[in-house]
From TrEMBL:
Keywords: GTP-binding, Nucleotide-binding, Repeat, Ribosome biogenesis. GTP 2 binds at residues 190-197, 237-241, 302-305. It comes from Pseudoxanthomonas wuyuanensis. It comes from the Bacteria. Associates with the 50S ribosomal subunit. GTPase that plays an essential role in the late steps of ribosome biogenesis. This is GTPase Der. GO terms for molecular function: GTP binding; ribosome binding. Belongs to the TRAFAC class TrmE-Era-EngA-EngB-Septin-like GTPase superfamily. EngA (Der) GTPase family. GO terms for biological process: ribosome biogenesis. Residues 3-172, 184-357 form the EngA-type G domain. GTP 1 binds at residues 9-16, 57-61, 124-127. The keyword Cytoplasm does not apply.
Length: 442
């Protein structure tokens, strides 16, 4: 289970800057592709790739934990952020080292004490400040753990990360769901109302859904087992699996943290889209989370039944354009309501899983690099040319290739994409991200 860390503090102390420092890695290959967006408030910190955790920026919490915005959609999002703080494994109480302790900080602290979550005090903006003076200003808060950082300059982030990891619950909960390796773990994810519950219920049948719930050890994590055409699956933490709650407001029941956790736990993520609505920003940010996690991906375009022939043509061209940056992912048209397209959906899921877990040998990947290199050597950049010497497989799920060479700093992004496409074609890798790691020297 992906632990949850909440950033709490009054406006302008630097929470969103800190959020970015924790959640935005500098891995250019995966990030910053046009068409992928990242949620502004929810993300996953992978600074230690072995110990990822979810981060929520709770936004503008005011006194007593009351959000500044409480109306409408923004209000629902704010309430969700607030309850995320209440459910988090660790709170980072962020304060402004330049301005010192304020009345609003005092109020937030009083609320935090009531929530009784483990809390670390993070004094931000200490760049150019005298740390001892700044610390003494907040001494009366009585925290035993105080970190002084500059989020904007990434100063103190390593120490903060160490502190966070030391405070988070021990791993092990995740293994709870891993106990049956013969079951492929699938997550059906997507924004509210795309049809996740309808799909999952159709796959399972109502009674079976209740009968075979696999409760997790923490919170209300739920997985459910499915047998289909003689194969075993485990559907992990899907919103659609939860019993219908009284609060049926779509935004309220949609939990971004649960979505991030489901993505983390699955082997194949099925991103549901609503054919009648195209690709929204929220769809794009769920997609971003799947790519960041390196999960195999199948896009299921749901509600295909509701479209006229003309609308289908429109939808096809729109989706092709919006999803062009993940053209390696298969898109399947389905109707959860009528149960059509599901056979094709599961075929695509299996193809994606097979690609993601395919073991490749050192000699075959070197052969591929050699041919790619000879067909199209890297260009000269201001008189410098990268040399690619050899490559070895760096793991599966997603397939990873470690390329060793020299002058790799001048290897253009376009060449990295060329290599990726070349390897994809040669090894028929569909439905999975592919990672290249470039290492200077041999
Ligand atoms: P939030 O409202 O708590 O999310 O705060 P923001 O992250 O939006 O930051 C508020 C302001 O503080 C922005 O102008 C940031 O550039 C600035 N800021 C954030 N972190 C630092 C820091 O470490 N040092 C300094 N000097 N300014 C910072
Ligand atoms: P969730 O929030 O993603 O779990 O979405 P639901 O499964 O609750 O579905 C939201 C709405 O879309 C409901 O009114 C469903 O009846 C409807 N819906 C779901 N799948 C389909 C479909 O394949 N075709 C059509 N026409 N409507 C669908």
């Amino acid at each position: 289970m992906l632990p949850l860390v909440a950033l709490v503090g009054r406006p302008n102390v630097g929470k969103s800057t800190l959020f970015n420092a924790l959640t935005r890695s500098r891995d250019a290959l995966v990030h910053d592709q046009p068409g992928v967006t990242r949620d502004r408030n929810y993300g996953v910190c992978r600074l230690d790739p072995e110990a990822p955790f979810a981060v929520v920026d709770t936004g503008g919490i005011a006194g007593e934990g009351v959000h500044l915005e409480t109306q409408g959609l923004a209000g629902a999002t704010a309430r969700q952020a607030r309850s995320a703080a209440e459910e988090s494994d660790l709170v980072l109480f962020v304060v402004d080292g330049r301005e010192g302790a304020s009345a609003l900080d005092d109020e937030i602290l009083a609320w935090l004490r009531k929530t009784a979550r483990p809390t670390v005090l993070v004094i931000n903006k200490i760049d150019g400040m005298d740390e001892t003076t700044v610390r003494s200003d907040f001494a009366r808060y009585g925290f035993s753990d105080v970190l002084a950082v500059s989020a904007a300059h990434r100063q103190g982030i390593d120490e903060l990360l160490e502190e966070i990891l030391a405070r988070l619950p021990e791993e092990g909960d995740a293994e709870e769901l891993d106990d049956d390796p013969s079951r492929m773990r699938i997550a059906f994810v997507g924004r509210p109302n795309v049809g996740k519950s309808t799909l999952v219920n159709r796959l399972l049948g109502e009674e079976r859904m209740i009968a075979s719930e696999v409760p997790g050890t923490t919170r209300d994590s739920i997985a459910v087992d499915l047998e289909r055409d003689g194969r075993q699956y485990r559907l992990v933490d899907t919103a659609g699996l939860r019993r219908k709650s009284k609060v049926d407001e779509a935004v309220e029941k949609f939990s971004i943290v649960k979505t991030l956790q489901a993505i983390e736990q699955c082997q194949v993520a099925v991103l549901l889209l609503d054919a009648t609505e195209g690709v929204t920003d929220q769809d794009a940010s769920v997609l971003g989370a799947i790519l960041d996690a390196g999960r195999a991906l199948v896009v299921a375009i749901n509600k295909w039944d509701g479209l006229t022939v003309y609308q289908r043509e429109q939808a096809e061209s729109l989706l092709a354009r919006k999803l062009s940056f993940v053209e390696w992912a298969e898109a399947v048209r389905i109707s959860a309501k009528h149960g059509s397209g599901l056979r094709e959906l599961f075929r695509a899921i299996h193809r994606a899983h097979a690609s993601a877990t395919r073991e490749l040998g050192t000699s075959e990947v070197n052969k591929a690099l050699e041919i790619a290199y000879e067909t199209n050597p890297p260009p000269s950049i201001r008189g410098h040319v990268s040399k690619l010497r050899f490559v070895h497989p760096g793991g599966t799920n997603p397939p990873t290739f470690i390329v060793h060479g020299t002058r790799l700093k001048v290897l253009p992004e376009s060449y990295k994409r060329y290599l990726e496409n070349f390897f994809r074609k040669r090894f028929k890798l569909v439905g999975t991200p592919v990672r290249f790691v470039f290492k200077e020297g041999v």
